[in-house]
Amino acid sequence: MKKQDLRFPDGFLWGGAVAANQCEGAYQEDGKGLSLVDLLPAAEGGRWDALQDPKKAMETTYDYYPSHESIDFYHRYKEDIALFAEMGFKCFRLSISWPRIFPNGDETVPNEKGLEFYDNVFAECLKYGIEPVVTINHFDTPVGLMKDYNGWANRKTIDFYLNFCETIFKRYKNQVKYWMTFNEINMILHIPMFGGGMDITGVENPEELKYQAIHHQLVASARATKLAHEINPDNQIGCMLAAGSTYPNTPNPEDVFAALEADREGYFFVDVQARGYYPSYSKRLFKEKNIKLNIADGDLEVLRDHTVDYVAFSYYSSKLTSADPEVLDKTEGNVFATLKNPYLEASEWGWQIDPIGLRITMNEIYDRYQKPLFIVENGLGAVDKVEADGSINDDYRIDYLREHVREMREAMEDGVELIGYTPWGCIDLVSAGTGEMKKRYGFIYVDRDNEGHGTLDRSKKKSFDWYKKVIASNGTDLD
User: Which domains are present in the chain?
Assistant: First the structure.
């Protein structure tokens, strides 16, 4: 089909995205409890090992913790939001740090200082006409819940989460309309510490424990959706998936089915959150993995009756898979290992660049759920060079984003309903997976290195003015 030159609809939510645990810093200021990332060193200090062994992470004292100061958004949010406003942001995706509101996670009375911080952040956004888009739990389950309850493996965490939700839904009733219950909810299968705030080491059937925790999160999401609609009928509640369609390595039907199964792994979550029931294929999945879920009375009804209003997702790359175990030429992509696609280029971190894959992913998700979509993460992590005159010529980032925006337009012409677009790390921040600063995504450069050195001063990259032009033209001027 012919490529179209299209305009985005009026009211389209152009913006950018960050997460509290990757940008705020102030890790113990004003009564905040510990977040999961506050236990983690940078990559060189053993971050991946710590992610896989939470007990070891809690018992180890590392030389440097990137999250403890991060980019200090906690003290610099006014400066940063003013820069977002200068770009013309219509929305700003951020998260509320659960342990900043309930330091251990299980308290009944919230931390007022934490609530006041987000009062101020949202007021600053609304001053510029920027709509806050809030993730409730973005890899930020309090460490206290992991230590005392093993996080989402314990059904009690549902009630702790709902207490958190009720507190923020009521507090920010007049400031926030767009919410997401969990960030990249499918990541619990790959990094249980981040996704579930839990330790699965030494467990006899870790898959069963993960899916039990998943059930708790799905029930919590549905009950939070119900609660949000009761508190404010105008609230829009979304789920959020780490997405990216999987291609078969060959036309071999076994490869095709392997790709289908790979996609189902993620769609499983949205099948429940958007359709309201466990998919038919889950019966075989549970049988083959020897998973017996403990489902309480009323759980299936709440899942059925309180589905999400929209489907949000992150997209960085497509994936490639084979049923042949001898095919081993793999690369990395947002935690998911994937075969190298010979038709695609890759970033410095091995993440394959596939703009058309975004159009494919959007069509597949929309065809499956028929609910509005929201692209809440997309971007290119790269090493940026500051020139002698202070300029940062990140044309590679502009090229990446330009091609993805073009394919977004094509998907919308295909019939996909899209609410908005918030590229990831609109300001440089600490990488979740590696703890690095040199892996930069932002339109705004932050003077900080991997060891925590630097002034934290902000400066505009070339992509800043490019994205400003894109927003001003409502997506028609991409040059």
Answer: 13-472 (3.20.20.80)
